[in-house]
Design a protein that fits this description.
Radius of gyration: 29 Å
Shape: elongated
Number of strands: 15
Helix content: 10-25%
């Protein structure tokens, strides 16, 4: 047999037997599987928080329900409702279908800055009271949100089939939404007030971190009139004369 032509620009091919070809095929397949495994083991994307500043007044004079879309996908994630029942004026928060809000006994929790919001929280799936103003004899405001200018509503909501956590910042002295945010990584907790990166909570008044001590109440209790209103009162009231 003549030797192959010694041309540096010419690649000479040699036939390979079927046994070697099978081994090469198996090796290539194994190498490909290993590469896919390496890609699958690549760390997940770094957590990212999407924050949206706002200045939305909760005005229920023209509509009784105000929706809020945390991730701007066209699907409301929660609703704020309000109106009058007798001599009383109320504000409540409710989640969209399949979502939830962090609850306190008989109300929506008014979370302090830096509070962790995540899978371990108790989420309510029905509308919960935030604030109630009773003006039958004189005007007094009750509820965990009464007179609070910087508190957070904890929220869990769905993007597709995955659960995400977020918060809504409200100034209830002016009944205004001042901003909201959510964590883009599914099932990743978020801190109330966290806008980006790690958050270290400021020192808080211990009284702010305590859950309000009062009997449970719902919108159904309000419908009972004055008797129901007496159930849903705090020891401390913000009085407007």
């Amino acid at each position: 047999m003549l030797p192959p032509t010694q041309n540096p620009n010419h690649r000479t091919t040699f036939p390979i037997n079927s046994r070697l070809e099978k081994r090469l095929t198996a090796y290539i397949a194994a190498a490909g599987a290993a590469a896919i495994g390496t890609l699958a083991a690549t760390p997940a994307a770094e957590a990212k928080i999407v924050y949206t500043p706002a200045n939305q007044v909760l005005d229920f004079s023209t509509q009784k329900q105000i929706p809020l879309d945390l991730n701007n996908d066209g699907i409301p994630d929660l609703y704020f409702t309000g109106g009058n029942i007798g001599y009383s004026d109320y504000v409540a928060a409710g989640p969209g279908a399949g979502n939830g809000i962090v609850g306190a006994p008989g109300s929506a929790a008014a979370l302090a800055w830096g509070t962790r919001i995540g899978p371990k929280d108790q989420f309510e799936v029905t509308p919960e009271l935030m604030e109630l103003q009773d003006c039958k004899t004189f005007c007094s405001t009750q509820g965990p949100w009464a007179g609070k200018y910087n508190r957070f509503l904890g929220v869990k909501f769905a993007i597709g089939v995955q659960t995400h956590y977020g918060w809504v910042n409200l100034n209830m002295k002016k009944r205004t939404i001042t901003g909201y945010a959510y964590e883009t990584v599914p099932n990743q907790p978020i801190m109330a007030g966290e806008k980006s990166g790690p958050t270290v909570a400021h020192a808080s008044d211990p009284a702010d971190l305590m859950a309000p001590s009062k009997p449970p109440a719902t919108l159904g209790v309000l419908a009972r009139g004055a008797g129901g209103l007496a159930i849903w009162r705090r020891d401390e009231e913000v009085v407007v004369r």
